[in-house]
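3-deoxy-D-manno-octulosonic acid transferase, Thioclava nitratireducens. Tokens?
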Amino acid sequence: MAGSLPLWLRLRLSALRPAGPKAKAAVEAGQGEDRADAPLLWIWAAGTCAEAAGLVARRVAARMPDIRIAMTVRGSESAPDGLPDQVFLRAAPEDRPASVRLVLDAWRPDLVLIMDETLPAALIAETQTRGIASVLADAKFGGQDGLRLDDVSLALLGRIDRIYLRDEASLERVDDRLSGPVIVVNDGALGEPPQPLHGSEAERASMAESMGARPVWLAAAVPEAEVGPVTAAHRYAQRHAHRLLLLLVPDDESQGETLAAQLTAEGWSVARRSLEGEPELTTEIFIADDAQEYGLWYRLAALSYMGGTLSGTAQSPRSPVEAAALGSAILHGPKLAPFREDYLRLEAAKACRGVVVPEDLPEVVADLIAPERSAQLAHNAWAVTSGGAGAVETIARDLAEILSGTQPARVA
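Tokens:
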């Protein structure tokens, strides 16, 4: 009872407010529509969750052609792209009892799906009171971007029938504090598999032949400030793999000629994509001065260092998802912007390695050049980038089965 008292007080205070204009607009927009006997799914989403909610809506509609889906997106006026005809967008009602009751009375949904960074207290409480099944999807607990786990949140979560979590870490945070809901752990945030960057198979085969059986690693979008640390790591790693080849892509591809001259002066055997085309057996550093060929470089390199993550000075940093989608293991520094969320997902799944200072780079490169080390990271990374699509299918299948009555929302 102590845990639910703050929630009770919050709901009582919000109950004093009448139905708001957004709820009235949502109801008025749907007046005159014939619901017939088709099941109705209400998707309550927040602006940042809208795209993932759209993915789920499309997959549920594909499984249930006769379904109707009402989508309300809090904090956004636009719908996700590519929604099927079964989905209609409505104004997001205020999360207060009077507003929620007005919408529930008008729509009479069979199931409510919540995808939000906060928990809509009035909606969750009212659906439980009416016996309407509720599901929370794409949820993460703890951390800077996760849902809070105070007494009010735990009381609300206990009223939800089914919860889909992004990761095992979230499960560990609630496993012994929450009973009742069905809890499913997905492989990462909901999403579609990334489209791999294009790469010519003929070019890849030709390049691989010129390289022979040499081990290869890639330094992508390397700014001037990181050339020294990267080449120092390469020098050290050559002691462990003496035929090791570095594919070096400058952050500014127009600097290829200058960079080649600098490295040649330092004693390196250098070749350039824009001149020699392919490395020779004696080439130590191949300057890949064509940013349009990243699909080729990721396919050739067992390990990719993501340039700019040591210094934060890259003007055109690359997403680690690109490398993950093409089977290259990922190494990075502490500067994760603008792809911080992607790196954190990969780190949580043990799908990449990070270093804190440039001095750490040589030993980590030397360690990860070992095929068994890079292969495990690459496998984990691929699972993370493709797992979101599998999670969408899992959630869509379960929602369809709950709506059709072949699966209970909550196991008694």
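The first strand starts at residue 40 and ends at 46.
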